[in-house]
# Entry
Amino acid sequence: MWFLQERNNNAPISGPMLAMKAKFFYKEITKKDDFVASKGWLERRKSPHGIRLMTYRRETF
# Structure
């Protein structure tokens, strides 16, 4: 849900940012600190959840 809200706001989300939020939400929900959001964890979730690499261009004035 957080990911979709951020994307709808056109916020850039990096892999490390996504891993950090996943760990945060896991800890909030389970009250445990034993989750590791590795690169493999992220790679396995990209396709089923529609996560893809995007390039953002910023306009300069």
